[in-house]
Amino acid sequence: MASPKEKFYEVQAAGIIKNLSKRKMEGFYCANVEEAKKKLCELLAHTEEGQSEKKSVAYGGSMTLDENGFKDAVKAAGHELIVREDYKTAEEIKELKAKTVNADAFLMSTNAITLDGELINIDGRGNRVSFLIYGPESVIVIAGMNKVVTNVEDGLRRVRNTATPPNCIRLDCKTPCAVTGKCGECFGDSICCQFVVTRMSRVPGRIKVILVGEELGY
Hints:
Layout: H1 4-22, E1 26-30, H2 33-45, E2 56-59, H3 63-67, H4 70-76, E3 80-81, H5 90-101, E4 105-108, E5 112-114, E6 119-123, H6 127-133, E7 138-144, E8 148-149, H7 152-170, H8 176-180, E9 194-198, E10 207-212
Parallel strand pairs: 1-10, 2-3, 2-4, 4-7, 5-8, 7-10
Antiparallel strand pairs: 5-6, 6-9
């Protein structure tokens, strides 16, 4: 039997999914990570003709993806995972950019998602948000319900004060938030360079959001 919190997540997700649809994005709810992996592989396998095929899959930096085996699930399903950590030199990174922008699918999480279905992301170099906006044929966003916020303003506060400080500590960035645990509006070694709010998808159904009834990532 579902706990009150699990039921709450399910009910809350249903409202978000309805609002995502209004914004030409597709939403799905999975109670846990294992269900989310199955949904991810199902979405990757689907074609307009209803047939299964192997896809080229790229991804952005994400603790949600790294800590919960989503990339391993993609490989186990037989898809071509473009492993960005394998590209190190300047020429290799150029090749990685070309492969990613032309990938069949791009995986990422989101720093926050509003109850009204808006995605909020803050990025350093902007590579992650750029592929969300344009390029790969499909974008699949996987987000724990801990990423849900009331509105865009709350989302920006969440990213600055909840998500960014541990990321800066992890990346050894010399930022005020890595020391104090809260945003210092810095201009130094900051990873908060690009603020992107996705209010809708220009291409209907290109962005798909899998909401997971667990706390995932930062």
